[in-house]
Write a structure and sequence with these properties.
The protein is an alpha/beta fold. The protein is about 40% helix and about 20% strand. Strand 3, helix 3 and strand 4 form a beta-alpha-beta unit. The longest helix is centred in the last third of the chain and has 17 residues.
């Protein structure tokens, strides 16, 4: 493990997701401890996207931005909101020069699949429909996120393709959760890795699926056909249970004719980029912004 990251491991809480309400509070407290982002040059606005029910979003608009990303927070499908994602969404907007539309999707287990995906799709459709009013190019809309949010982003790209919905230009998938089956080497062996481990992944999928069988709409790795999807950037952490399913998904996208950039970050663990002082975290975060900037450039 990267020594700069290893020093912080004792400070990471050992969340297990058996009590989602308690873990949400712990997650919020952890997020509140992250240094506040620099929002200079950003116009930030909270909106409600009309849907059933309406979906809260927070829009981060850099000056002269033209593209947009539908941004989906992490938290194992059961934690996180617009506030916990604020530092990351603001950084993404500042680094990428892209409008970031952060989605406050409904959380499991109170709202299992497909609630979160329905919310994300409603925001994607609304963004495309109101692109002129939002000051963005409807041909330059990406989807992206961290962890469970990245898995939702991948599912959102699949749904947009299958429903002939709004065109998605790019998918930015940072350590996504893609496969509920947990059959890969990394899922089977990473039982005690920091922050995210096999048991926590199991609980996350259990809460999200709510006892219903998984479909490709819920677990994108189950999709038989990945052709026709937007180009993708996929980042993995070496000591992350999701690592191998993410690498496999990247290979399957490539084999389906989809352009992919894949970066496996050595010495890192799931969510370790929250340790902002580490040099590898700084490189990870800078790369996410740069990739999105390039993807939505003319």
């Amino acid at each position: 493990m990267d020594p700069e990251l290893e020093a912080f491991i004792p400070l990471f809480p050992r969340a297990d997701l058996t009590d989602p309400v308690t873990e949400r509070k712990n997650f919020a407290d952890l997020a509140a401890a992250v240094p506040a982002p620099d929002v200079t040059g950003l116009d930030i606005e909270d909106r409600m996207v009309p849907a059933d029910p309406d979906v809260p979003v927070r829009i981060y608009r850099p000056r002269q931005a033209q593209g947009a990303v539908i941004w989906l927070h992490g938290g194992g499908f059961v934690m996180g909101d617009l506030e916990t994602e604020h530092p990351w969404a603001a950084r993404m907007a500042g680094l990428s020069g892209t409008v970031v539309i952060s989605v406050g999707y409904r959380l499991a287990p109170e709202h299992p699949y497909p609630a979160a995906l329905d919310d994300a799709y409603a925001v994607l459709a609304w963004t495309a429909e109101h692109a002129a009013g939002l000051g963005i190019d409807p041909e330059r809309i990406a989807v992206g996120g961290h962890s469970a949010g990245a898995g939702l982003a991948a599912a959102l790209a699949l749904r947009a393709r299958d429903r002939q919905g709004p065109p998605v230009r790019y998918q930015l998938l940072n350590q996504p959760g893609l496969d509920d089956r947990q059959e890969t080497w990394s899922q089977r062996h990473f039982t005690d890795t920091p922050w995210m481990n096999r048991d926590k992944v199991t609980a996350s999928w259990r809460h999200y699926l709510g006892g219903t069988p998984a479909t490709p709409d819920a677990a994108p790795a189950r999709a038989a056909d990945l052709s026709g999807l937007p180009a993708a950037y996929i980042a993995t952490a070496e000591l992350c249970p999701n690592r191998d399913e993410d690498i496999t998904y990247a290979l399957r996208l490539l084999q389906a004719g989809v352009s992919v950039e894949l970066h496996q970050w050595p010495g890192t663990f799931h969510g370790s980029q929250a340790i902002l002082s580490a040099e590898v975290s700084q490189r990870q975060i800078a790369e996410l912004g740069a990739v999105l900037r390039r993807a939505l450039a003319e």
